[in-house]
Amino acid sequence: MEVALFLVLPVFAVIAAGYAGARTKLISHTGVDGLDTYVFTFAMPALLFRNLANTEFPSALPWGLWVSYYGAMLTVWAAGSLIALYILRRPKADAVMLGFGCGQGNTIMLGLPIILTGLGEEAGTPVFLILAFHGIILFTIATFLLELTRERVDGHQPGFGSILKDGLLNTVRNPVIIGIACGVIYGQLGVPLPGVLDTALEMLARSAIPCALFVLGAMLTRYSVHRSVGAASITTFFKLIVHPALVFLMTQFVFAMEPLWVAAATLLAAMPTGVYSSILANRYQAAPGAASSTVVLSAGVSLITLTVLLGWFL
Are 305 and 240 in contact (CB under 8 A)? Predict the structure, then answer.
């Protein structure tokens, strides 16, 4: 457990530095937004592209890994939405958003540094295999459901195909998704990266994780934990406990995967709810208070749950 704590604490120390910098105005909101743009437009796509381009994927498609992770994700999403709809009596759009928070983890900003630092570079293979479809599946489904449940003043409801098309277009325009897709495609060509390009990408990639953690901490100052604490607590429980538990059971006992893959997939599922949940909630005005509370609450609680989980696997 002590080893796990020393692995997790530096990560959260960088997050705390970002939080302190934004709270004390040492870095402005404009500066944070600029750094966020750099991370998600340049540094993180470079990191993902370079790693995926150099990753040797298994010869057989890892259906067990995908079924385990995404099956668990969709299960907690559905459970969270049903609880919000029938027990908390929330509107349909709010229920979609609260369920989304149960399954959408901070895989990029927090997942990559913790897993790669704690489990080693070899854990990158299952993580990148999951991330290859993470954004496409999550954001497309979320946008589609939110558009379906959205109340419109003119009463006009766009068609199924139109909503699906807009959701897919918004997803594929995401620089992180582009970096992942290009990395997977290039990696399958079997051609090594040219030396100059590889060095340039490595320089960008080195800055991705610390900058992403700093931005995460700075952005936490924009959200409040006291808004809709009850709903946020339920979402946090599903995200930090139920989601990783289901992934562990599936990877360990149903598909009997190797220990490193079990650990990597479970830890990725145990990441706290990402800030995109609050951004999407504000955009659609679907439970924005509960979404922002979940981002802060799950991030704080994850310091404990991730330390325990990582210590157990180590």
Answer: yes
